[in-house]
């Protein structure tokens, strides 16, 4: 039994560290950790989250699967579940894994298991499932992320890294003290800096911007949303998806007004001349001038010309938010942003150059640790088959078909079993009607989650996990200076278990538990990981017990960094990991792939989903499916902070008053948002700070089909991924393109259907007794 006494304990989530009051097995209140001056509002989702009605209370198996066996997928997503014991679950799951491996091989298991899961180095669900599947003999895996699908491929090719663009980004302190002009493509959305992968103990961005402005620093924001920058800025609201055209126009002014730094381009870059032919229109007869760009982006040519001159005259950082690459041809924006910064010649100078993701995550601008972090070894995957992460529906729908990726010609494997722990494809993947059809293909879908997400409801075998609040762990994030002990706040809810315990039991059943557990309990693993890590450090840290008692350990950081300063100081001893060792404005490798959707230099390509294209005649509003301010993705959507943001129980959609008026829609109305892929309901919030013809509907409302048996059912709750196109950035990266989609909006006049997203499915005991 959980102690009824209130207790105060500190721990951490991806969105911040906190002290919680715990009573009767749940959190009753939270306060941010001392020293966090700008805590994330998402902390408000924690109270009540442990015993929330959407928790999975016991192992469960889909009735159709239990009765008819693997492959009987017709009712998947609409079926009842049967509660089973842990022993039965272990037996069933072990037998099914054995069957798939025996008849189809390990490559028939898809174990990419993309998703954020929770903070904590040991119980990190994706690390656990990968370690387990590697012990089993391997699995088809996924590469890159939904966050940075395009960046993860293009930037290593043109600047030799993508990780270091964030980890070793120019520090906020350097920006505060040296930068004069921050030109932000995609704004600097402080709502996003609440979050950091692995957790975070401080949020300095807001205060840094305040100090920056006090010193005279100016912010120019290109974004369809005014509030993507908090506080004073010059706001340009372009047609969404046209940033590359804008950057080209700025580059054009630099090139034609002798403002480009030719020395920098000659010393540190390769291929500028090839690019300049494109820029000036030497070969195609189309100069990428401000007048040319103005017709595409809807901004005034004179403003672009004036800004380019200002940028050349000031210490300037060009920063590109991650959202700009989560769209068709997403490779181009970060590549072109880098090219523009290179033309300014300030890369590697304090307060000048390039940034990627200020305002996308807490990490950019924070000093990196001078050391590594404790880490659970995942072993080796004997299977070499992989997919780019956002190709999951393509893979399930097109087994055996070839596809291009980053210069390779690959083939989709034939997947029989999908294994997910710590992620939610119904949150992260595009075109949910297509995803639901794709998930109808494999024989078996296994999901571990603490909550009945739509993905859990579409599984055959459902494994109830603990949350990070119900187990011991230690934190660790590469740009956060504090390692935190994460004590168990309360006992595991109902019949839930740590993923580690589930995999340990399965390993035992499958005969490799010694390899998986190495004979350690979870607590022994924490001690082991901590000790292994501390033995490799070149400074002293306390013994584990002392660290655990103290609850926090401050680690040394590398302060005052400027991105690529080393390279600027000495390009021969700090060669970039590109073929030329230099910044590749023209990449011979990419050019050699011959892709028609990604040339050898950055270029403007017309998007498919944009207001300037033919599709806009039918769907005249550009929907931005950005990150939610009130939560992390779909996590704790049932919590108070997330629920407070809803309108009539639906996810809020922001729109300009003129667009609402034209549709007879007012503040607080429920609307149907639709296109030819799907539809959802959402609750209207009017905001003149949204560009006309743009609407904004964040991701994260749990998918809630009006009729679960209909793959094309409308989502009554407001998940934008019923609308987004499941198409990749290009043949190069095949990244996620979910940030942008064209839609139409109309008043919803039918009776409002109830939101059932957070209700568990019907669960029966084997005797037929309905327990819901
Ligand atoms: N349209 C559109 N779609 C997008 C985006 C967009 O901009 N537009 N953004 C994309 C981006 S950048 C991302 S990163 C993805 C995010 O997509 P995901 O990372 O898949 O989303 P989350 O809701 O964080 O899913 C994590 C799941 O892990 C579960 N979990 C938490 N702790 C544990 C645990 O200990 N064990 C287990 N087994 N499970 C646990 C949570 O309950 C939750 O269901 O979404 C992408 N999707
Ligand atoms: N509160 C909160 N913070 C988060 C997350 C969360 O779920 N909740 N998720 C985290 C994760 S996993 C990631 S990857 C990052 C993602 O970081 P981003 O991808 O940068 O975040 P978004 O909120 O999708 O987009 C930021 C802003 O870019 C603007 N924008 C979109 N398209 C365009 C465009 O075409 N042109 C211009 N100029 N602007 C555009 C939008 O107005 C949007 O508000 O956020 C992280 N931070
Ligand atoms: Mo992300």
In short:
This protein has 772 residues and is an alpha/beta fold.
Rounded to the nearest angstrom, the radius of gyration is: 26 Å
Total strands: the figure is 30
The low-confidence runs, each spanning 5 or more residues with pLDDT under 50, are none
What is the overall pLDDT average?
A: 97
The portion of residues assigned to helices is: 25-40%
How is the CATH topology of the largest domain named? Answer: Rossmann fold
SSE-based structural type: alpha/beta
Each distinct ligand:
ligand MGD, molybdenum atom
Q: Tell me the name of the CATH class of the largest domain.
A: Alpha Beta
* Count of helix runs: 26
Strand order of the largest sheet: 6-17-18-19-4-5-30
In total, how many domains does the architecture comprise? Answer: 3
Let me know the largest β-sheet: 7 strands, mixed
CATH architecture of the largest domain: 3-Layer(aba) Sandwich
Beta fraction:
15-25%
Overall shape: globular
Distance between the termini: 23 Å
Structure description:
- Its EC number is 1.7.2.3.
- Its cofactor is Mo-bis(molybdopterin guanine dinucleotide).
- InterPro entries: Asp_de-COase-like_dom_sf (IPR009010), CT_DMSOR/BSOR/TMAOR (IPR041954), Molybdopterin_N (IPR041460), MoPterin_dinucl-bd_dom (IPR006657), Mopterin_OxRdtase (IPR006656), Prok_Mopterin_Oxidored (IPR050612).
- The strands form 8 sheets. The chain has a 7-stranded mixed sheet.
- The chain has 772 residues and is α/β, with parallel strands linked by helices.
- The radius of gyration is 26 Å and the shape is globular.
- The mean pLDDT is 97.
- The protein contains 26 helices and 30 strands.
- A hairpin with a 7-residue loop joins strand 20 and strand 21.
- Helix 9 runs antiparallel to helix 12 and helix 9 crosses helix 13.
- 28% of the residues lie in helices and 17% in strands.
- It folds into 3 domains: 249 residues, Rossmann fold (3-Layer(aba) Sandwich); 227 residues, Dimethylsulfoxide Reductase, domain 2 (3-Layer(aba) Sandwich), CATH 3.40.228; 134 residues, Barwin-like endoglucanases (Beta Barrel).
- The site of one ligand MGD has 36 residues, from helix 16 and strand 18.
């Amino acid at each position: 039994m959980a102690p009824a006494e209130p207790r105060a304990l500190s721990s951490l989530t991806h969105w911040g560290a906190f002290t919680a009051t715990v009573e009767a097995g749940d959190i009753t209140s939270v306060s941010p950790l001392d020293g966090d001056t700008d805590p994330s509002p998402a902390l408000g989702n924690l109270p009540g989250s442990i015993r929330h009605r959407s928790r999975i209370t016991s192992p469960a198996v889909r009735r159709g699967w239990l009765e008819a066996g693997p492959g009987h997928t017709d009712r998947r997503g609409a079926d009842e579940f049967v509660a089973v014991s842990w022993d039965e679950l272990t037996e069933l799951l072990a037998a099914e894994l054995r069957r798939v491996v025996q008849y189809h091989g390990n490559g028939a298991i898809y174990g990419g298991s993309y998703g954020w899961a929770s903070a904590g180095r040991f119980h990190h669900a994706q690390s656990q499932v990968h370690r387990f599947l590697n012990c089993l003999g391997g699995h088809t895996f996924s590469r890159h992320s939904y966050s940075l699908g395009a960046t993860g491929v293009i930037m290593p090719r043109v600047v030799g890294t993508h990780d270091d663009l964030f980890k070793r980004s120019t520090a906020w302190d350097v920006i505060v003290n040296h930068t004069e002009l921050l030109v932000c493509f995609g704004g600097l959305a402080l709502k996003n800096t609440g979050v950091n992968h692995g957790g975070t103990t401080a949020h300095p961005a807001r205060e840094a911007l305040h100090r920056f402005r006090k010193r005279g620093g100016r912010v120019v924001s290109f974004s369809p949303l005014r509030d993507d920058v908090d506080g004073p800025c010059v706001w340009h609201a372009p047609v969404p998806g046209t940033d590359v055209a804008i950057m080209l126009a700025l580059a054009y002014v630099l090139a034609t007004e002798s403002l480009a730094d030719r020395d920098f381009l000659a010393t540190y870059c390769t291929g500028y001349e090839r690019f300049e032919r494109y820029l000036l229109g030497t070969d195609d007869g189309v100069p990428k001038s401000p007048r040319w760009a103005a017709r595409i982006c809807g901004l005034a040519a004179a403003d672009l010309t004036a800004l380019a001159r200002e940028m050349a005259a000031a210490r300037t950082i060009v920063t590109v938010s991650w959202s700009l690459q989560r769209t068709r041809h997403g490779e181009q924006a970060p590549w072109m942003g880098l090219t523009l910064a290179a033309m300014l010649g300030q890369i590697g100078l304090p307060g000048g150059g390039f940034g990627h993701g200020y305002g996308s995550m807490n990490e950019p601008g924070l000093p990196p640790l001078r050391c590594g972090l404790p880490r659970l070894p995942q072993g080796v995957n004997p299977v070499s088959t992989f997919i780019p992460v956002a190709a999951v529906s393509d893979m399930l729908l097109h087994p055996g078909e070839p596809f291009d990726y980053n210069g390779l010609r690959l083939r989709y494997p034939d997947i029989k079993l999908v294994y997910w722990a710590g992620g939610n494809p119904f949150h992260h993947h595009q075109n949910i009607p297509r995803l639901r059809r794709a998930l109808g293909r494999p024989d078996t879908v296994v999901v571990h989650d603490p909550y009945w997400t739509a993905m859990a409801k579409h599984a055959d075998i459902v494994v109830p996990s603990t949350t990070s609040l119900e187990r011991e762990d230690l934190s660790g994030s590469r740009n956060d200076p504090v390692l935190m002990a994460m004590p168990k706040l309360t006992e595991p809810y109902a019949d839930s278990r740590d993923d580690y315990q589930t995999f340990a039991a399965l390993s035992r059943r499958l005969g490799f538990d010694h390899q998986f557990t190495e004979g350690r309990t979870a607590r022994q693993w924490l001690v082991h990981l901590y000790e292994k890590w501390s033995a490799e450090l070149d400074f002293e840290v306390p013994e584990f017990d002392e660290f655990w008692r103290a609850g926090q350990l401050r680690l040394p950081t590398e302060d005052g960094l400027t991105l690529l300063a080393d390279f600027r100081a000495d390009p021969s001893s700090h060669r970039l990991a590109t073929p030329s060792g230099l910044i590749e404005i023209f990449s011979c490798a990419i050019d050699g792939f011959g892709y028609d959707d990604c040339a050898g230099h950055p270029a403007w390509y017309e998007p498919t989903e944009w207001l300037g294209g033919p599709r806009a005649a039918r769907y005249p509003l550009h929907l931005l499916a950005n990150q939610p301010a009130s939560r992390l993705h779909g996590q704790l959507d049932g919590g108070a902070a997330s629920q407070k943001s809803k309108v009539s129980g639906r996810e809020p959609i922001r729109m300009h008053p003129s667009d609402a008026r034209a549709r007879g829609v007012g503040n607080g109305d429920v609307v149907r948002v639709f296109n030819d892929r799907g539809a959802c309901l959402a609750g209207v919030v009017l905001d003149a700070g949204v560009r006309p013809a743009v609407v904004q509907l964040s991701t994260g409302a749990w998918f809630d089909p009006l009729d679960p048996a209909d793959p094309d059912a409308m989502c009554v709750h407001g998940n934008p991924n019923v609308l987004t196109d499941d198409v990749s950035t290009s043949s190069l990266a095949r990244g996620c393109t979910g940030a942008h989609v064209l839609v139409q909006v109309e008043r919803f006049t039918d009776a409002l259907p109830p939101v059932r997203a957070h209700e568990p499915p019907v669960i029966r005991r084997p005797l037929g007794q309905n327990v819901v």
